[in-house]
Amino acid sequence: MFAALRESRSGLRPNDFETPALETWIGRVDGLEHEPVTGGLDEFDCRNNRLARLGLRQDGFEDAVAQARERYGAHRIAVLIGTSTSGVHETELAYRRRDRSTGALPPDLRYRYSQNIFSVADFVRRYLELKGPAATISTACSSSAKVFASAYRLIEAGFADAAVVGGVDSLCLTTLYGFGSLELLSRAPCRPCDVERDGISIGEAAGFVLLERADSGAGKIALLGYGESSDGYHMSAPHPEGAGVHLAVMQALFRAGLAPDAIDYINLHGTATPANDRAEDAALHRVFGNTIPCSSTKGWTGHTLGAAGVTEAIISALCLERSWVPGTLNTRALDPSLRSRIVLTGEQHPLRHVLSNSFGFGGNNCSLVLGMRA
Amino acid sequence: MTEVYVDGVGLIGPGLPDWGTAREVLRGEREHEPAHLPRPDAGMLPANERRRAANSVRWALAAAQEAVGASSYRADEVATVFATSDGDGETLHHLCEALASPQREVSPTRFHNSVHNAAAGYWSIAAGSQHPSTSLCGYDATFAAGLIEAASQVWSERAAMLLVAYDLPFPPPLFAVRPIAEPFAVALVLVPEPRPGTLACCRITARRGSSACAPFPAALRGELASNPAAWSLPLLALIARERRDAVRLPYLDGCQLIVEPVAWR
Are the C-beta atoms of A203 and A11 separated by less than 8 Å? Predict the structure, then answer.
């Protein structure tokens, strides 16, 4: 991931998912079609859980969880995963195979283990052999930022000593055609904050983080604050001045005990829809003026929806560790009406504190503050 | 272990039009007579949203409105947790049907109604609330998962929380893969300190183990137990009868959730 950030290598490509009738670009993970979930968890087999398993196998994560299991006990580690559409693609495909006379779905549809929203947290919990509290959080595109806040509280309230948090969302027709119906799909690779931006590129991703108390964990990165809010404005359009976003950012700063000028980099939600980038910019400019470097990394990953929060939290952590402010890939001409300090090209720069934003349908906002551990 | 106070209850289900009726049924003072309920009118929604809101949203908001009305808080003063196993089945059915057709033409309203946090979004618009909102799912453990999320927010944020749990029967053909037979929605206002109208104090503990959960209240007829949200009723039965037993809610393999009304005044 970090090499791709440094080298400005995008993961986006022209839509080739399933029967690609839509002219748009997507971030697609290769090979999922050929890697079924097998063994004792084969009933969970679906694109979303295949992607989850692939994510769990990266970067020594399973080993880190195994060590935590030793330290805390399996029943003291919670699992909170964000997703927006879980394994709905299985149901989409099953609807093409309905019985012609009765309309019945094919008997091989395992709804509970694919489409139901809990499926992914259930799968992760079983795959990692954890026995603590668990849930899937599903607040559209803020889902896997919210898991950090919820996990923090579960630990604070004593329901767990540690938590596996994450986000998994996979390509499906519901989101491709749904965002298409709202005319929010870009025809080209998405261009966040560009004057000619025309919508999102949908991506798929799985990301996981092990959260522990600062006094017992070994991690280098700390979750310093989180802020959550609702717009209370519209189901699918952001509040024009980003009122809810402003509130989430302020609460994240407050919980972190930081003044705005202590933030060194802001990873924008930056979806590249005209309305999102405008509203987010308005809210951030109110707090930070034009002094803090901001960028959207969705030109690399696409908008990974329910996985966007954790994807960008992990990007933020990588940037903290390696002192890197990423640029905004694909964006050529900044929208002159945006007033924040949006950076287009990456640069080496020491970072102490990073803010990462995630917003979802239903006006659901979440901001995280991450920092190097003291 | 975490303690939270129950400051308001609302619910709606067949033969259980409100908490007052349910309380009498659960106390054994009244027969449960399941009857078809008309679609809740969702009167708190602005006209545009009322036209667009799916049935599951109307049920969730009906319970939520009753609970908040009975509490010492206004709708715009509470943060929310919306817990549903399956969201809105009508919406899912229409989307999947459209996506299986050659044109794949999806209604934008159906698409935004399909998000798991649809009810939460409509609620925040109706309530004019900017408070945090979390929507979640735990399949058959959805009520317990919502309770643990809400309780941990009450405990660590010292905030007043509205917990809403709801599910409606799926239409065919989806009903066959998730046979929830009866609709039910429940809402609890949970707070960190007792208020004048507080009904109970609940101690909530997650513990290792997998023993059987509480029996479903015998006073309730029909197939309510097929609805994950209705698994709030073993707890509500204790509250209605002012009993102090511990109740074990359906939760997860290897993990129990125990709720115990305790003395508080």
Answer: yes
